[in-house]
Specification:
Belongs to the ABC transporter superfamily. It comes from Clostridium amylolyticum. It is a single chain. The protein has 9 helices and 10 strands. The chain is an alpha/beta fold. The chain has one domain: P-loop containing nucleotide triphosphate hydrolases (Rossmann fold, 3-Layer(aba) Sandwich), CATH 3.40.50.300. The strands form 2 sheets. Strands 6-7-8-3-9-10 form a 6-stranded mixed sheet, with helices on both faces. Strands 2-1-4-5 form a 4-stranded antiparallel sheet, with helices on one face. Helix 3 packs across helix 4. The longest helix has 16 residues. The radius of gyration is 18 Å and the shape is globular. Bound molecules: adenosine-5'-triphosphate (ATP) and magnesium ion (MG). Magnesium ion binds next to helix 1. Adenosine-5'-triphosphate binds next to helix 1.
Length: about 240
């Protein structure tokens, strides 16, 4: 379970995240929406312990983000879109193993998990090849395996399908639904309302680091008397950011 409490981050000139409060339960996919620069990535990077909040905190399964950051790291899996940051000279297997060991897994445990994921993601053909020449989709599968090898109970997705073709996007979307089935607490950020409609249970819309609206998909559609999430989103934040 994720509980975000007055979470804030300011950079020198920008208040990127400004007093966010929300919860995500197990088995729930929360869509974090907002225009470019709204503070989504900054929020997710803080939850992944990659960035330190300037104020507030969050708890992951009762562990405090700041005071127990190493425990939090073990319980969180991240899949961010764009360049996925694998080591080109290592094989897919070695990349995942390296990350598993960084997360405190022993080799036997990690090997078992990697074998399972290789099967699940259909990576047998290339699991022992160096990733340098892999296609985007192949790399994304390795990144998926890496994000979950340590069996985290919380998953953070930041535009995970950006730049992927239809088939690779579908693999990522199915993976998110599998995480939901496995009862993980999930935050998913995307600019695709199609994906949001397909994957999310509840939505938090932020603008300039603050929540402007939140609710289940149905409650928002009902409140704004509009079946189209995109139109609701545009009405709430469209054109507000420079
Ligand atoms: N390392 C940093 N140093 C200074 N400013 C930053 C830094 N990271 C983010 N920001 C600023 O914080 C604000 C929020 O950025 P963030 O990347 O969180 O937005 P986002 O909602 O993820 O946008 P997008 O949809 O474009 O990915 C922006 O104004 C951005 O310029
Ligand atoms: Mg972003």
């Amino acid at each position: 379970m994720i509980e975000i409490k007055s979470l804030s981050k300011s950079f020198k000139k920008v208040q990127a995240v400004n007093g966010l409060n929300f919860k995500v339960e197990k088995g729930e996919v929360l869509g974090l929406l907002g225009e470019n620069g709204a503070g989504k990535t900054t929020t997710l990077r803080m939850l992944a312990t990659m960035l330190k909040p300037t104020e507030g905190t969050a708890s992951i399964n009762g562990h405090d983000l700041i005071k127990e950051s190493s425990q939090v790291r073990k319980e969180v899996g991240i899949l961010f879109g764009g360049e996925v940051g694998l080591y080109d000279r290592l094989t897919a297997y070695e990349n995942i193993m390296y990350f598993a060991e960084l997360n405190g897994m022993n080799k036997t445990e990690a090997a078992k998990s990697i074998d399972y994921l290789t099967e699940m993601l259909d990576m047998k053909e290339y699991i022992n090849r160096r990733v340098g020449k892999f296609s985007r989709g192949m790399k994304q599968k390795v990144a998926i395996a890496r994000s979950i090898v340590h069996s985290p109970s919380v998953m953070l997705f930041d535009e995970p399908t950006i730049g992927l073709d239809v088939t690779s996007s579908k693999i990522v979307q199915d993976f998110i639904l599998k995480c939901k089935q496995d009862n993980k607490a999930i935050i998913f950020s995307s600019h695709s309302m199609n994906e949001v409609e397909k994957l999310c249970d509840r939505i938090v819309i932020i603008n300039k680091g603050k929540i402007v609206e939140e609710g289940t998909k149905d409650s928002l559609k009902h409140k704004y008397d509009n079946p189209d999430l995109e139109q609701i989103f545009m009405r709430l934040v469209g054109g507000h950011n420079e």
